[in-house]
Amino acid sequence: MKGGLVAINKPSGKSSAQCLNEIKAIISRSELAKFFQPDPPHPNDKNSKRKKWKRNDIKIGHGGTLDPLASGVLVVGLGIGTKQLPTLLSCVKTYKATCLFGCSTNTYDSSGKIIRVATKIPSKEEIADGLAAFRGDILQLPPLYSALHIQGKRLYEYAREGLPLPENVKPRPMRCDHLELIDFHEKGQHNYNDPDTFASKEEIESEELLRPVPDSEKKKAENDSDGAVNHDSVQDNNENSQQKSSNEEASAVKSTSVESIRTTEEKEGQENKNEPKNRKRKLEVTDLERGSRPAIGPSAVLDMSVSSGFYVRSVIHDLAHHIGSEAHMVDLIRTQQGDFVLGSDACFEFEEFHSAGWEQKLASLLKLDLENKEG
């Protein structure tokens, strides 16, 4: 068996596993399959894994998962190259990440649902200055929607099933050697949109269990709520004050929190205290949320070099909170992993495996002799 390491430019919209399975199926039907097939087990070999050997099966793996939203360098090990993949776990990776300020989501990216809307839209200077807090050695809390295991179950499985976490998730030591703002576009100068779906009360509470909302934010939300009640009483006495306050509220960026999401049962309970309490609960957002989309803020592109296991989504989420705002990731490109660089000769475009000539290119990179029928 022969083989080695190559890189592919994973397209956005496909998981790493999907890409790997497609490539595996294509190579398995090609003349190169013979180079990457494991040797058949000896008849007396009692290793259970070896007993699963199949004649046309090839050995393949990758050196670090990319989220479906992300694109860029995905290192693939073929044949004996799979034994080299563990060395990539400790190498530095570089990314270009685009974040959109204005709201945060339960997944920390554009595939999720809105959990909070910003009360402040930061400037380019505030974003650039805030990056200093995340350079060097840091402690990072992973997103709730991540593949980390807790007691044999992945975090995203707890989130999707609405199950409480059996234990607290601890921040992990990470390193960020380089973190810079390389591009910035004000609202109206980019083509990104915020998600149009708000998270349910349970989904918001699940995220807050992992990453609690600071007491200062909760207190502010309570004060805002009290202020709204006092404002109503002022409206009854002064119509001019009512008009002024309404205009101010309309121009402000509103903040979404757990308190702003109520259940139908709770709303009906305020109208009729004798209503039966054993009715099925239905989640419902307030009128404010139902009829509006959050204000779209600026987009910012960050260039970073980080250690293995680093969650780019988390640093965007944490950066926004650090400067008093909300944000989520809308695009991610891995530009380098170890010695493999996006756009280099050693990096395949994923579409190349669906066109002629890929066999010769792969054989040349891995120094395989296609004329050798023995493999």
TrEMBL record:
Stretches with biased composition (Basic and acidic residues)? 199-223, 262-292
- EC number annotated for this UniProt entry: 5.4.99.25
Q: Name one GO biological process term.
A: mRNA pseudouridine synthesis
Please provide the record's keywords in A-Z order.
Isomerase, tRNA processing
Instruction: Using the UniProt record, name the top-level EC class of this enzyme in a single word.
Output: isomerase
The Pseudouridine synthase II N-terminal domain extends over 58-187
The cross-references to InterPro entries, in alphabetical order and at most eight, read: PsdUridine_synth_cat_dom_sf, PsdUridine_synth_N, tRNA_psdUridine_synth_TruB
Q: Name one GO cellular component term.
A: nucleus
Gene Ontology MF terms in the entry: RNA binding; tRNA pseudouridine(55) synthase activity
Ranges annotated as biased composition (Low complexity): 237-252
**Catalytic reaction(s) noted:** a uridine in mRNA = a pseudouridine in mRNA
Any Pfam family hit: TruB_N
Q: Does the keyword Disulfide bond apply?
A: no
Q: Where is this region: Disordered?
A: 187-297
Instruction: Report which superkingdom the organism of origin falls in.
Output: Eukaryota
Which family is annotated? Belongs to the pseudouridine synthase TruB family.
Q: What is the name of the protein in this document?
A: tRNA pseudouridine(55) synthase
Organism encoding this protein: Schizosaccharomyces cryophilus (strain OY26 / ATCC MYA-4695 / CBS 11777 / NBRC 106824 / NRRL Y48691) (Fission yeast)
**Where is the organism placed in the taxonomic lineage, from the top?**
Eukaryota, Fungi, Dikarya, Ascomycota, Taphrinomycotina
